Design the sequence.
């Protein structure tokens, strides 16, 4: 990509002027910040500059992410219901042992803390289906929106729109639609079919949890993939067409490999959001029926926050376990990605 | 630019807030409040009058989602970030954060006389004198029936002293005759099922006052609830859908005439008056009986003073005003809440409704208060009652959907209660 | 928004390179249009339903089968009655149908009068009457909360939070990403490890420890408590760094030759080249901040600092949710983002796309 790509287009229109006016304070900020950074560079030399660049972020990161993680760890080795660490008795690994007590780890019913294990297994099922279907549908939608269709801008906006809604609103809207007396059932009855009580059936509940979270987030990933599709040089396709290459082959040989970096971003982001799933499913199914759609974050939230005895210790232990598992998974994922990039 | 812009905007907001309040006031009191209906409006009217009489005090009502009262407020209080007053429902659980108003109110005897039985709910165990606040409403659990459906089906409504089984059978008969979806629905709430459980003989506590959730009485109730879900008397959408301790009600289905009998409580009255109105006769009936009693559960929300306040004198003054018979008569009357003030309860409240159904329901629930079982009062006053409620509904729910057998569920309930109480006892 | 075909070369960038030039409809074209029509219905339908529902009365919301449009029963003035009476369509035994007003209902019988002949009262079984309704919009769902609800303050707070948080996030994340992408320095791997390690940690699970930190810093009940803690997003740093890694080093070396300061290289070269990734992060940040609920709920308990999400959820009580208000206020909270989106839609959807994202 050359520098020319980002320089403004030649004809100066009114919107360009408006843009320039809006950019003015940002330019000013840049100019002001240039002074101290130049100064630092003069004193400490170029080798020290990365530290100054990462400093503000790391300061916030350290205070509001790393420090709480350490406090969280400290919570996990203490007991009781007090908020301040100084008031909490040390209990060693008791909380972890409590979570790990199972006759058979593959059968949550035999575990002392059955809900924790159910949460883990439910999350695994959810993530597997949600991420793969999300990537699939985002890809199909991006491919379609990349075609020469009328009103393409409108369609792109339409598919992106649900991304604007808050998870709570998304869940409320769908709950409204899917309830016993909702529109969907009204439609089924209207067509002479039986009503379906979606939230009483474990499979339907899981289905709608996956469906609704894909509905709400797909637009965002579609956009990233669309960006990748548009960056594929058209001459590649022209050459392929001249050679009479079959469309399927073009897709596997040109489109997909060139789209791969964007696919990666989509997979990583989708996976992160999927593991963290909480509010939309919590409002939609409430984790039920029974514990069929109760995920790990909901377990932690309920244990540490929304029960009368706020069990910060147990919740923290569960979140440390979750954190370690996620960390290992992330590293594995990145290792696989890197390997493929090199290969 | 970022910070400057924000600073200006933040300052702007602050100025705006100041203008909205009043620059004259010396003391500002803040109430963390939540709304089920119009009570916020009524409270605001009362506060406006209080401010008029006390120009040196302003009172701000910070209305939050109920979720914040239940989940965020305890953490805020533990961190010492509470406000001056709050409307709470976990009366005993938060008692350690309440301010004892005795030195700041003009007439503690008035409080003892009129709020006596409810003051105890707001005390820490072992304390028998603190005055923390008053009940913004007293609630009583009990069933409503759709009387019109009974008439249409030509089924006689079970009379006084009828048992839960009688009502279940009658409701089912009505539902079958008229093709109604749900014969009977109970709120998914531990508080709601405790009334029937106590009626069927549940003792809830050992003789030493330790919690003992599972006994034959509770098992009888649980078995019935389970059977009613299996034979279609009760819909699975309430108990068999969400997980854990979440509340679910059937008020909308009842308002749509889809439910013959609905076990809920007095707080539904204003809502039913609004959403059902004259569409059918929604009728509150006395709590059905079990072998041991015919009782509902008392409950409610209270306005309490908090220790974090820096203005206890002013808080006392405000509480004096709000707790006066005159102010409360207006408050209860306009909100259609069952009074938590003994004097007013005796004298009767002039409720602001001319709906005969609402008036009948209000008097039915008010009349039920004296008949409430002492066990029910003890349970309501017990500090860790929500631990018991939560264990009860979450495990019963899992049994109803078939994840556990009833016996496993009983075992899990006891484990849950024991574990949470043990965790709390670690505080020393 | 009519993005009609302007670039002929794009024809070939189509699905599986289809759209055959011979003018016949290929199966992929049919599929495309079916998919688009269904997709738009699926994406917009629920939102349209939300908006329509927000105009219904409390009773109307609970009806089954639900009506598409908000309806209200017609009332008529009848001579001899002070209040207007509700109008019904009554089917008599002989099959005639007549419009009648209801005086009162006792049990399963209703007393009806003919509005044209108010003298005579008739007893009608309630099964033989249907309410007559017309479209009626429950504006009070909007007006009533807006009177008591300090909408402008909440809106102002939400705008401040969203704008400030997004700007800070973009600035510090891009600076850190720049530092981590362009330079080799000691400790870089350790920092990257922390960033990657925390990528997947949801804030929900460290809610309480973070709250402790925020209280110790005295930030409770300020907008800063909502803005600052989420700014150092590991996702943002990771996303931007991955993108910046693809920027050719020659450009940076050339700039250094020209005596550009490191800050200038960051600001003038790397940042503009990373705009697509920054746009993605900006959308992410705006949506997250605007809709954030759990965190503000715990750090803010004074109404002058409430954000819109807290304000609108305040209609959810213990025992009763005032859905008519919640829905109406949800629609109100949606308007600003929708308007911003409508204006920026071109930039968001085509801007990222045309500058290409790697």
Sequence:
């Amino acid at each position: 990509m050359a520098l020319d790509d980002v320089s403004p287009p030649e004809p100066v229109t009114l919107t360009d002027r408006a843009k320039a006016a809006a950019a003015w304070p940002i330019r000013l900020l840049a100019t002001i910040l240039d002074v101290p950074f130049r100064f630092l560079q003069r004193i400490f030399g170029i080798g020290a500059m990365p530290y100054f660049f990462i400093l503000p972020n790391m300061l916030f990161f350290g205070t509001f992410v790393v420090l709480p993680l350490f406090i969280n760890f400290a919570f996990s080795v203490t007991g009781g219901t007090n908020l301040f660490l100084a008031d909490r008795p040390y209990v060693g690994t008791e909380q972890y042992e409590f979570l790990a007590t199972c006759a058979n780890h593959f059968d949550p019913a035999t575990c002392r803390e059955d809900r924790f294990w159910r949460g883990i297994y439910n999350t695994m099922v959810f993530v597997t289906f949600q991420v793969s279907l999300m990537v699939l549908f985002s890809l199909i939608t991006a491919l379609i929106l990349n075609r020469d269709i009328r009103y393409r801008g409108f369609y792109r906006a339409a598919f992106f729109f649900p991304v604007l809604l808050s998870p709570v609103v998304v869940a409320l809207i769908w709950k409204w639609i899917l309830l016993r007396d909702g529109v969907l059932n009204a439609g089924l009855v209207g067509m002479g079919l039986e009503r379906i009580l979606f939230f009483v059936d474990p499979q339907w509940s899981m289905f709608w949890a996956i469906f609704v979270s894909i509905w709400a987030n797909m637009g965002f990933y579609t956009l990233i993939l669309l960006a990748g599709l548009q960056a594929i040089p058209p001459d590649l396709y022209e050459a392929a067409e001249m050679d009479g290459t079959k469309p399927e082959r073009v897709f596997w040989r040109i489109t997909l490999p060139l789209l791969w970096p964007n696919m990666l971003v989509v997979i990583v982001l989708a996976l992160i959001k999927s593991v963290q799933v909480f509010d939309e499913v919590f409002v939609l199914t409430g984790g039920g029926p029974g514990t069929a759609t109760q995920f790990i974050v909901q377990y932690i939230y309920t244990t540490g926050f929304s029960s009368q005895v706020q069990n910060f210790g147990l919740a923290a232990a569960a979140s440390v376990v979750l954190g370690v598992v996620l960390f290992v998974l992330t590293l594995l994922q990145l290792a696989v990605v890197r390997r493929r990039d090199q290969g | 630019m970022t910070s400057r812009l924000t600073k200006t905007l933040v300052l702007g907001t602050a100025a705006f807030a100041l203008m909205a309040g009043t620059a004259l006031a010396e003391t500002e009191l803040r109430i963390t409040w939540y709304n089920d209906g119009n009570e916020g409006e009524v409270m605001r009217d009362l506060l406006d009058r209080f401010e008029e009489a006390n120009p040196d005090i302003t009172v701000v009502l910070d209305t939050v989602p109920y979720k914040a009262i239940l989940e965020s407020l305890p953490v805020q209080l533990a961190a010492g970030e509470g406000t001056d007053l709050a409307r709470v429902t976990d009366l005993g659980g938060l008692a350690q954060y309440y301010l004892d108003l005795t030195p700041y109110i003009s007439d503690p005897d008035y409080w003892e006389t009129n709020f006596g039985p409810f003051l105890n709910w707001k005390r820490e165990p072992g304390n028998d004198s603190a005055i923390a606040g008053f009940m913004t409403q007293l609630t009583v659990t009990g069933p409503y029936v759709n009387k019109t459906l009974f008439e249409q089906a030509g089924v006689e409504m079970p009379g006084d002293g009828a048992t839960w089984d009688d009502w279940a059978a009658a409701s089912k008969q009505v539902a079958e005759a008229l093709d109604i979806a749900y014969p009977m629905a109970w709120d998914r709430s531990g508080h709601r099922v405790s009334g029937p459980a106590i009626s069927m003989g549940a003792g809830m506590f050992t003789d030493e006052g330790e919690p003992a959730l599972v006994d034959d009485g509770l098992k009888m109730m649980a078995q019935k609830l389970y059977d009613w879900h299996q034979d279609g008397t009760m819909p699975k959408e309430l108990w068999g859908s969400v997980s854990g301790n979440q509340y679910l009600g059937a008020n909308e289905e009842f308002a749509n005439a889809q439910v013959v009998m609905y076990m809920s409580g007095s707080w539904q009255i204003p809502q039913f008056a609004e959403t059902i109105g004259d569409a059918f006769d929604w009728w509150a009936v006395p709590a059905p009986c079990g072998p041991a009693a015919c009782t509902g559960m008392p409950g409610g929300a209270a306005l309490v003073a908090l220790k974090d306040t820096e203005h206890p004198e002013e808080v006392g003054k405000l509480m004096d005003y709000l707790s006066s018979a005159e102010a409360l008569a207006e408050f209860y009357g306009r909100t259609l809440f069952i009074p938590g003030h003994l004097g007013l309860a005796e004298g009767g409240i002039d409720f602001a409704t001319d709906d005969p159904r609402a008036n009948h329901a209000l008097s039915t629930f008010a009349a039920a208060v004296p008949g409430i079982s002492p066990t029910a009062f003890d349970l309501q006053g017990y500090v860790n009652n929500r631990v018991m409620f939560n264990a009860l509904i979450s495990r019963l729910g899992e049994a109803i959907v078939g994840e556990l057998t009833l016996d496993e569920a009983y075992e899990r309930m006891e484990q849950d209660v024991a574990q949470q109480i043990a965790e709390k006892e670690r505080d020393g | 928004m009519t993005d009609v075909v302007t670039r002929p070369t794009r024809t070939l960038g189509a699905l599986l390179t289809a759209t055959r030039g011979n003018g016949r409809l290929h199966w992929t074209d049919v599929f495309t249009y079916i998919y688009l029509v269904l997709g738009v219905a699926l994406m917009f339908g629920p939102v349209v339903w939300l908006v329509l529902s927000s105009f219904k009365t409390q009773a109307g919301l609970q009806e089954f089968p639900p009506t598409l449009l908000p309806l209200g029963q017609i009332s008529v003035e009848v001579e001899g009655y002070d209040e207007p009476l509700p109008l019904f369509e009554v089917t008599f035994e002989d099959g005639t149908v007549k419009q009648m007003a209801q005086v009162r209902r006792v049990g399963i019988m209703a007393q009806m009068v003919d509005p044209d002949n108010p003298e005579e009262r008739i007893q009608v079984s309630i099964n033989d009457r249907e309410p007559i309704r017309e479209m009626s919009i429950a504006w009070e769902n909007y007006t009533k909360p807006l009177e008591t609800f300090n909408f402008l303050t909440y809106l102002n707070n939400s705008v401040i939070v969203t704008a400030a948080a997004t700007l800070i996030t973009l600035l510090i994340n891009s600076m850190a990403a720049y530092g981590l992408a362009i330079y080799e320095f000691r400790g870089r791997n350790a920092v990257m490890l922390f960033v990657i390690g925390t990528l997947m940690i949801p804030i929900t699970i460290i809610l309480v420890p973070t709250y402790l930190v925020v209280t110790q810093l005295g930030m409770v009940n300020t907008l800063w408590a909502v803005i600052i803690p989420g700014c150092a997003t590991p996702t943002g740093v990771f996303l931007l760094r991955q993108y910046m890694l693809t920027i050719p080093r020659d450009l940076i070396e050339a700039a250094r030759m020209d005596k550009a300061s490191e800050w200038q290289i960051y600001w003038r070269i790397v940042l503009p080249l990373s705009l697509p990734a920054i746009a993605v992060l900006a959308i992410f940040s705006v949506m997250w901040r605007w809709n954030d609920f759990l965190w503000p709920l715990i750090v803010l308990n004074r109404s002058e600092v409430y954000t819109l999400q807290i304000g609108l959820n305040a209609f959810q009580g213990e025992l009763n949710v005032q859905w008519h208000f919640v829905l109406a206020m949800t629609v109100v909270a949606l308007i600003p983002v929708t308007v911003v989106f409508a204006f920026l839609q071109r930039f968001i959807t085509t801007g990222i796309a045309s500058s290409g994202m790697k």
